């Protein structure tokens, strides 16, 4: 977050305070002074320990106040998503597409039998049509093998409509500007040279897993004049895997993603942003796994106070923050802990029971771990900080002067010393 002072009044100096309306946002600096024309960059941190896993966005308001600025307070709305570690994009289209990281397993199809380069004549801004080798689904549309055609472009994309298929100027995905019905592993202004090759190979299967692979080998990018190699694997059931042999992180122009036939639905992985482009040996799968269950446990942090030798209880919520029906399992680690249910289907509130028998006074970290076989592979862990005390806790009364109010301030133990 960048702060600027635009006033030209040099004599007055600005003093500000930054705050948020939620406990899970923090800042590297919370106040400062800016003279006229000065800028400051404030780093904003989100602590996912407070937030259940979800593809839905959490919102918060960041406030900037000053006792001398005429436009104080300023408010900035920010959004945060807490996603599984393999999910790159949580916001899906209405078809449920998401982009997830994939193990990098390059498919070697560099052989003369699979070389499509000889079909191309100009080597620049050219697209040729090829019959689909099998039936497949794309955004709810069934495409017929040996009847429907896809257009393979030298500019790093394939389309299922001829209009605009030779376009070298990339657009956002989706966009109603042609081409539409796009699969774009890397759409930019590329060209072939004597070193370049365009390969394609079909892999058949009887179990609904047929796919074809296209490789752009040593294509020259107009932006920097360097050669780039990448490939796309398209499955008959609609999944797409993008693989990148070269390092794309120095580039600033290009589109990566998919788009439907109308240009109104799509999933964009990257667009003209250097930090979003893939490093070498990267693979990304675009899939409808966004329509599958997504396990989330809540709350992720709890504190329980218990007398030494006594029993305690806590409640853990199991939630499906995705779609479909969630199948889940739980396991507990802690002093004599048990669960009211260790497995189930759908949302549930689980009672965690335990005993502090034999424990001396101190802090103990207990964990509840959740897994799901039919949703995202994700071990979502609840941490329960068990405060074991001996004797009777003291109660202290606080006297407030007139005009003062008591304020509740939550204190979160970041790094407790646990047994």
Quick structural summary:
With 419 residues, the protein is mostly beta strands.
Word description of this protein:
- The chain has 419 residues and is mainly β.
- Helix content is 0%, strand content 45%.
- It has no helices and 33 strands.
- The chain has strands at residues 2-4, 14-20, 25-27, 31-34, 39-41, 44-46, 54-66, 74-82, 87-89, 98-101, 127-131, 136-138, 141-143, 149-153, 158-159, 182-187, 190-191, 197-203, 211-221, 227-235, 240-244, 255-259, 266-271, 282-287, 295-298, 301-307, 311-320, 327-333, 338-339, 343-345, 348-355, 362-371, 380-389.
- Strands 9, 10, 17, 18, 19, 20, 21 and 24 form an 8-stranded antiparallel β-sheet that branches. A 6-stranded antiparallel β-sheet has the order 11-14-15-16-22-23, with no helix packed on it. A 5-stranded mixed β-sheet has the order 26-33-32-28-30, with no helix packed on it.
- Strand 20 and strand 21 (240-244) form a beta hairpin.
- Residues 9-14 and 410-419 have low confidence and may be disordered.
């Amino acid at each position: 977050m960048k702060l600027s002072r635009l006033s030209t009044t040099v004599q007055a100096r600005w003093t500000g305070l930054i705050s948020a309306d939620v406990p899970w946002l923090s800042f590297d600096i919370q106040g400062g002074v800016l003279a006229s024309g000065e800028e400051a960059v404030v780093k904003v941190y989100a602590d996912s320990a407070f937030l259940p896993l979800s593809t839905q966005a959490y919102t918060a308001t960041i406030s900037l106040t000053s006792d001398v600025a005429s436009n104080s307070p300023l408010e900035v709305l920010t959004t945060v998503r807490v996603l599984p570690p393999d999910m790159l994009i949580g916001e899906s289209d209405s078809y449920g597409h998401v982009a997830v990281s994939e193990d990098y397993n390059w498919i070697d199809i560099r052989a003369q039998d699979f070389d499509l380069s000889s079909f191309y004549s100009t080597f620049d801004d050219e697209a040729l049509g090829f019959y689909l080798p099998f039936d497949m689904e794309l955004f709810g549309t069934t495409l017929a093998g040996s009847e429907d055609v896809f257009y393979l472009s030298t500019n790093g994309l394939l389309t299922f409509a001829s209009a605009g298929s030779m376009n070298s100027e990339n657009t956002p995905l989706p966009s109603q500007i042609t081409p539409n019905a796009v699969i774009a592993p890397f759409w930019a202004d590329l060209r072939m040279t004597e070193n370049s090759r365009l390969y394609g190979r079909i892999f058949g299967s009887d179990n609904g897993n047929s796919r074809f692979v296209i490789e752009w080998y040593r294509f020259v990018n107009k932006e920097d004049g360097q050669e780039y190699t990448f490939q796309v694997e398209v499955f008959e059931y609609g999944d797409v895997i993008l693989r990148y042999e070269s390092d794309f992180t120095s580039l600033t122009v290009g589109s990566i993603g998919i788009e439907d036939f109308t240009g109104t639905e799509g999933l964009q992985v990257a667009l003209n942003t250097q930090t979003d482009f893939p490093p070498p040996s990267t693979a990304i799968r675009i899939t409808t796994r966004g329509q599958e269950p997504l396990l989330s446990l809540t709350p992720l942090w709890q504190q329980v106070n218990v007398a030494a030798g006594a029993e305690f209880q806590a409640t853990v919520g199991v939630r499906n923050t995705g779609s479909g029906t969630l199948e889940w399992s739980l396991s507990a680690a802690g002093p004599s802990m048990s669960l009211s249910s260790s497995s189930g289907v759908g949302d549930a509130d689980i009672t965690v029971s335990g005993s502090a028998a034999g424990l001396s006074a101190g802090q103990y970290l207990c964990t509840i771990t959740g897994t799901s076989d039919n949703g995202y592979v994700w071990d979502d862990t609840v941490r329960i900080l068990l405060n074991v005390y001996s004797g009777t806790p003291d109660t202290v009364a606080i006297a407030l002067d007139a005009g003062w109010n008591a304020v509740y301030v939550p204190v979160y133990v970041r790094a407790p010393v646990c047994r």
